[in-house]
Write a structure and sequence with these properties.
Blueprint lengths: L13 E2 H7 L5 H9 L3 E3 L2 E2 L6 E2 L6 E3 L2 E2 L10 H7 L4 E6 L22 H6 L3 E3 L7 E7 L2 H8 L7 E8 L4 H9 L1 E6 L5 E6 L3 E8 L7 E8 L6 H8 L4 E9 L2 E2 L8 E3 L2 H12 L1
Parallel strand pairs: 9-15
Antiparallel strand pairs: 1-4, 2-3, 2-5, 5-6, 7-9, 7-17, 8-9, 10-14, 10-15, 11-12, 13-14, 15-16
Helix pairs in contact: 1-2
Amino acid sequence: MKTQSPAARNPSGVRLQKAMADAGIGARRDCEDMITAGRVRVNGKVVTSLPCFIDPEADTVELDGEALRFPEGVHASATAKTAARSYTYVLINKPKGVITTTRDPEGRRNVLDLLPPAMRKDERLYPVGRLDGDSTGLLLLTNDGDLAFQLTHPKFGVAKEYRVVCAGLAADEQLQALKRGMYLVTPASDGTKTSKRASMESVRILKRFVDRNRGDRTLLSVTLREGQNREIRRMLARVGLKVRELERVAIGPLRAGGLKPGQVKLLGKKDVEKLRSAVLG
């Protein structure tokens, strides 16, 4: 049953997903998924519908039974909070086998393990968007909930570029089907399924490899402006192409440069301004 506390219905408070993001739990869209999945309680009651408003100073919020602590200033206005709080932006070149999460009950290596110990201790950073464990490439970590929301929300349409190696020699007909788009069905935690249209901003063949020993393969360049869970792999599978390697090579204007797999880079003011310009663009 969908329930909300009295505070949760008070529009003068802070949106629950925004308060969670500002507390370093995850990007705002990830927090929305946690809420709708029934993992969040406000003052002892499960909240599964949005919008939901809270008072971070008075309400008790739990995620999976663990009480959350909100930093000072979460209740402040956006302008005042931005002025009072410094944000950190870290670019990671994620290697294969590292998962995009800040917590893992199975104890697998996650993206926070790539950060210097001092940064892991002092900053509540979380990944913006996702790369599955088998995928590699660029990932942004930050404690700036507003920019994270803008970089992942479809209405802002920030481009992400990928290099994809797939088995076989891709044909023009397959690429045309990817450009036209298709509906992908995603099961939810409650057993229901949702169908959502997916399409590629662009897809083109960079190189075809004819190899009798390793098998034929194709190197593709793919650009997305809205990403679903494992979208590229699922779309390519629908047209008969199996992904062997997948690497994100650009997030908006950001590229790896000399950043090697497993390395991290603290972004400066110019890089952050480029990201904000991409959002506004």
